[in-house]
Amino acid sequence: MIPTYHYRLAPDGLFTRRQLRARGLRPGGQEPAAQIIWRRGRRIAYLYRLELARPVRPMTEARARALAAAMRARRTCPVCRSDRGYVIPTSLGACVPCADGT
User: Fold this and answer.
1) What residue ranges do the domains of the chain occupy?
2) pLDDT (tens digit, 9 = 90+) per residue, 30-55?
C-alpha cells in the first residue's frame, strides 16, 4: 500500500512530476513513493523522491523533427488534406468547414 497524504500535507523531499520538471528533473523510472489526494478522493497525484530523480533528457534534432511531424499531422484535415493551423477536433473528425459541409 502506497502512503497517502492529503493536499498540502505531504512531507518534504517528495515532489510531483510537474515540480520535478520545474527543476529540470524527471522521475527516471522510480516507482511513486507516495500520493496526495484532494477533491474528496477524486484527484490523485503521485509523489517522487528528489534524490532518485534524473535530469531531463535534452531535445535532439530527431526528437524535434518527430514532434513537429506529429503536430503537423494533428493539424491536417483528413478530408481536405489542408493544414488548418489548429488541432483538428476528434469529436468532428475533420476541420470545421469540412464537418459543416461548407
Assistant:
1) 4-55, 61-100
2) 999 999 998 887 899 999 999 999 99
The phi, psi pair for 3, rounded to 5°, reads: -60, 135
Assessment of whether the complete model's pTM goes beyond 0.85: no
Three-state secondary structure call for residue 28: coil
Q: What stretches of 1-102 show up as alpha helix (H) in DSSP?
A: 17-22, 61-75, 96-100
Q: Alpha-carbon Rg of the chain, whole angstroms?
A: 20
C-alpha cell at 23: 527543476
Which residue from 10, 11, 17, 54 is spatially nearest to 32, judged by alpha carbons? 17
- To 5 degrees, how large is the angle CA 89–CA 87–CA 23? 120
Pick the closest to residue 49 from 13, 25, 75 (CA basis).
Answer: 13
